[in-house]
């Protein structure tokens, strides 16, 4: 009987194990809270020769993504990680990588963006990069984070996709909390994730030009090509997760994971680690006879439009919990969810809850309040469409 | 390492580019590629040499090449070099960064500094036309004192750019990399020998080449090499090398030719008066004093 | 042999003919630069001593030294005049091209 390797790891450490098992040949990263313990762990692994890797200690996040891109275009597997200010600093390079179709995998520790300065978790950083052309997946546990890094390479490197993947972990509340994580054997991961092969690389035998200029004449068609890959990614993300489930015994719902939604009246849409709290509240409310459920969106890009469009009148009311806010409009996930729901026959009422900004805890009381507001609005009571939950004062 | 022109290959690895007639940058690049050869991976940021070579569908580089973001030449090259090492080809190839003064001295300086500090295995070539030429002649940190540019215009009170040119060679030498040099298209044998020397060294190597620009400097294209020669003869451009902790000045004019002839031949300096020539010669003399001292001390 | 316009190259005519992302083969010429010139350099082969300075200084690399006599690829010469100006033998004339 094979011994199962279960370790007590933080979210960042779990990611590091996942990266180790995927064996990127070049890592270029710059430390930023709360990603630091991840890049430090990887430094240790590389120094201990756990996997052969050229680890570049670059002098900024912009250089981290530029160096990662330079390595990726030579045809090697790469990895990097960042957070918040670093993610924003490398913004133009994110667009370079995605437009060039290099399958970089990056872990982003979700953290608020200055100002005001804040090192704690919310989703403002990754939300600001929704248009960058990267696949964005959000995880809720250390186990899922490690597993999703492995899945991310398989998705990114799929010849039909060739799109970089950002795996998001909630800063501190996931990166720095500890849990039991089952770490698979190298051989099992190697069977699931073969070595990276591509023609999209610089090659002495077939000299190429990369990152070229393309003017108005063909630019749109290249963007259509990019969008087609994102559409295909909806299928591939789901397939890879299902395949992972078969081989490792764990899967996460593909693009979207429902919890007790089958007969629910009111559901809450969430991203990331708050899903665990939401499910606890759902269980408690269910005991009191309330028919509630949680929808965890795992893939923000590509957005699961078809899933939301299919909901029709399954629920009376749907709330979206956004740990971000687009000033001048509403929460980012809410805006996209509402647009996806906007189909003939849709009867679901929607509310947007802004919570958890700048690392503020989202409590069970907060979540229960959200469900009671969803109930109220479906019973005809007046509720503001968008509300800040958990304000210190009214 | 004596270079004989006759023995250099006739093969052009840079051809058909849309640079202005008389542009010095492709002189420098094609000569470098004659020494470096086909096993070269080159990386350019937004600049004249990328905009004129890499716009679909015409690709003027006949070797592996990439464009990158404006600040990212050295960092992209560094990543390419790391991959080359992991692929086991680092001894057989050159990772060549080619950037203008804008992408090197200003927006690209951080990445270049980082690559030098890490001693990344790249050869970085800066062609210096002394302004942001690709975007229409705006001033850069490498624009000399007194030069007109669109963002350092001249009038009765303003001499044009009124601060001195950033000393990029000094900055790079301070990083103590294995090899750094300045070169000129008017001294092609010297340029070729420096490229050949750099090719065989491992680690961060940097060559800074003055690239007279007919469009931005304002002169007839045929004078490009002449002007580059005058700049060396009047001391406004130095030819030097830094290697193994030692600084060597390759060309030391016994007396400098007056700057007036060089400056007056260019539209960008046409507004200068006698007192400006004197100021420029004073700055030149100060720079050379520092240079001579460093050559003796280092 | 200097590079020439790539006759085999065709622009894509449908989505599946696009190359991936922002990549392209290296080294494709689709147009000549001959139209840039007003004057074209003509080498007086009797005066030429094959010092190769013109070959070194040409920004376009259009001077060929493979054969006994130096040759100019007029498809890509822009007529900048550096070769004529720098020739120590004054063996190159810049001749105004005929107006067609």
Summarize it:
Chain A has 394 residues and is an alpha/beta fold. In chain A, 39% of the residues lie in helices and 19% in strands. The termini of chain A are far apart.
- Portion of residues in helices of chain A? 25-40%
Alpha-beta content class of chain A: alpha/beta
Number of structural units classed as domains of chain A: 2
Largest sheet of chain C: 2 strands, antiparallel
Oligomer state of the chains in this structure: heterotrimer
CATH hierarchy class name of the domain at 33-96 in chain C: Alpha Beta
Q: Kindly state the percentage of residues in helix of chain C.
A: 10-25%
Give the CA-CA distance, first to last residue of chain C.
28 Å
Q: β content of chain A, as a range?
A: 15-25%
CATH topology-level fold name of the largest domain in chain A: Rossmann fold
Figure out the total of helices of chain A.
13
Tally of helical segments of chain C? 2
Q: List unreliable stretches of 5+ residues of chain C.
A: none
Blueprint of the fold:
The complex is a heterotrimer of chains A (394), B (298) and C (100).
Chain A: E1 6-10, H1 11-22, E2 26-29, H2 36-47, E3 54-57, H3 61-72, E4 78-82, H4 84-89, H5 91-99, E5 105-110, H6 124-127, E6 135-138, H7 142-157, E7 165-170, E8 178-182, H8 186-192, E9 208-210, H9 219-248, E10 256-259, E11 266-270, H10 274-287, E12 292-297, E13 299-301, H11 305-309, E14 317-322, H12 332-341, E15 349-354, H13 364-378, E16 386-388
Chain B: H1 25-36, E1 40-45, H2 48-51, E2 54-55, E3 58-59, E4 65-68, H3 73-86, E5 94-100, H4 102-106, H5 109-117, E6 123-128, H6 168-173, E7 179-184, H7 188-199, E8 205-210, H8 214-218, H9 224-233, E9 240-243, E10 246-249, H10 259-264, H11 274-297
Parallel strand pairs in B: 1-4, 1-5, 5-6, 6-8, 7-8
Antiparallel strand pairs in B: 2-3, 7-9, 9-10
Helix pairs in contact in B: 1-7, 3-5
Chain C: E1 24-25, E2 39-43, H1 53-57, E3 63-64, E4 71-72, H2 82-86, E5 92-96
Antiparallel strand pairs in C: 2-5, 3-4
Structure description:
The complex is a heterotrimer of chains A (394), B (298) and C (100). Chain A is built from 13 helices and 16 strands. Chain A is α/β, with parallel strands linked by helices and 394 residues long. Chain A folds into two domains: 6-248, Rossmann fold (3-Layer(aba) Sandwich); 256-388, Rossmann fold. In chain A, the strands form three sheets. A seven-stranded mixed β-sheet of chain A has the order 3-2-4-5-7-6-13, sandwiched between helices. A six-stranded mixed β-sheet of chain A has the order 10-12-11-14-15-16, sandwiched between helices. Chain B is an alpha/beta fold. Chain B has one domain: Thiamin diphosphate (ThDP)-binding fold, Pyr/PP domains (Rossmann fold, 3-Layer(aba) Sandwich). Chain B has helices at residues 25-36, 48-51, 73-86, 102-106, 109-117, 168-173, 188-199, 214-218, 224-233, 259-264, 274-297, and strands at residues 40-45, 54-55, 58-59, 65-68, 94-100, 123-128, 179-184, 205-210, 240-243, 246-249. An eight-stranded mixed β-sheet of chain B has the order 4-1-5-6-8-7-9-10, with helices on both faces. In chain B, helix 1 crosses helix 7 (188-199) and helix 3 runs parallel beside helix 5 (109-117). The two termini of chain C are 28 Å apart. Chain C has helices at 53-57, 82-86; strands at 24-25, 39-43, 63-64, 71-72, 92-96. The chains are: A alpha/beta (394), B alpha/beta (298), C alpha+beta (100). Chains in contact: A-B, A-C, B-C. At the A-B interface, strand 3, helix 3, helix 5 and strand 9 of A face strand 2, strand 4, helix 3 and helix 5 of B.
